[in-house]
Design brief:
By secondary structure, the protein is mainly alpha-helical. The protein is 64% helix and 3% strand. The chain has 13 helices and four strands. Pfam families: DUF5692. InterPro entries: DUF5692. Keywords: Membrane, Transmembrane, Transmembrane helix.
């Protein structure tokens, strides 16, 4: 079992997951189906939030109580969350430029942007994974265990699984093929990357879930499961080829929500913690005395194996087809690719 979901609160925890998953699917549909929807989600809202974030930190520096006690200021101080929010939003804007052929979105060279922004997002997470591995080693030398307290007052347990998953993330970047195979859908609702088929999506989802399980353990029920399954669900059923756009949209929108309402995950009836916290709770004021990191190690190995297999499969196909897998599309015989291309202009 991955999470502690049992007892009287289990119904609320399951309801919370269903609400997040459903809202992410619907929010993605709102953002992708029209220019206005995209502009509101990735233009207007981020600008308003940026003003809000700046106001919080300026007022906190001036000693104002409302800012010092603000949930965003207290609970969402990590560099990672801001980097992820703005990197994901930048991806959404770039994808809209490609989809609607705005400005440089018309050019051939800009088609490589989706690869670059996804690679940057993966590297941000890889650095965070490695940081946790290093902090865990430092804690082991100083305290005799691997627990370390993050800047957001969450106890993390850093170990070899962080290094294994970080390597899986690096390999995942190499599993993105057909960098220039970017298209607009005929109905202008989607930016399509047809060569990003189920092979990459499964490898990515496993790696990213393990990343959240390692480094965002108190959030991973939502940002690990619901957030990853929402774009995969849409891609599987009605939006073939649009997975990366779905992923960017849902990630950016979730980061906006979580940055403003962190207690939804951290301290509410919807909160869920993983089995890592063997004491059954996570209190920043109390150093954990029991730990169960088994699933961190198991999932890290699975994620690494999935990415090794995916990359090996890509290399094999590239050799058979005598193609550069990054300049050319290599999954053209797969049904998912063909369905996506039937939607392209």
């Amino acid at each position: 079992m991955l999470f502690q979901i049992y007892g009287e609160g289990a119904g609320w925890q399951l309801l919370g997951w269903l609400l997040v998953f459903t809202c992410l699917v619907l929010a993605n549909e709102f953002a992708r189906r029209s220019k206005m929807g995209g502009i509101i989600c990735f233009g207007v809202i981020p600008v308003l939030l940026t003003v809000y974030f700046i106001a919080i930190y300026v007022c906190a520096a001036l000693g104002m109580d409302w800012a010092l006690n603000n949930d965003t200021y207290v609970h969402m101080t990590s560099w990672f969350h801001y980097a992820k929010l703005y990197a994901a939003t930048a991806g959404c804007i770039g994808f809209m430029m490609l989809k609607y052929k705005w400005g440089i979105g018309k050019t051939e060279w800009f088609k490589v942007f989706p690869f670059v922004i996804v690679a940057v997002n993966i590297l941000i997470a890889v650095v965070s994974d490695f940081e946790s591995g290093i902090r865990g080693a430092m804690a082991l030398a100083e305290y005799g265990d691997r627990w370390w307290l993050s800047s957001e007052n969450v106890w993390l347990y850093g170990g070899w699984w962080n290094w294994v998953n970080g390597i899986a993330g690096i390999l995942n970047i190499l599993c993105m093929t057909g960098w220039w195979g970017i298209y607009s859908s005929k109905d202008k609702k989607d930016m399509l990357w047809p060569d990003m088929t189920w092979c990459f999506i499964i490898a990515y989802d496993l790696w990213n879930f393990e990343y959240t399980y390692n480094n965002l353990p108190t959030h991973t029920w939502y940002c690990g499961l619901a957030l990853l399954l929402a774009p995969t669900f849409a891609n599987a059923l009605w939006n073939k080829g649009g997975w990366i756009q779905n992923r960017a949209n849902t990630l950016a929108l979730w980061c906006m929500f979580a940055q403003v309402f962190p207690l939804f995950q951290d301290a509410s009836r919807f909160s869920v913690i993983p089995v890592l916290y063997a004491d059954g709770f996570m209190d920043s004021a109390i150093r954990p005395t029991a730990v169960n990191p088994t699933m961190q190690g198991v999932i890290a190995i699975i994620a690494l194996a999935a990415n090794v297999l995916c990359l090996a499969f890509i290399i094999k196909r590239a050799k058979e087809q005598k193609k550069n897998p990054y300049k050319n599309e290599i999954f053209t015989d797969q049904k998912d690719f063909q369905i996506a291309m039937s939607r392209a202009e």
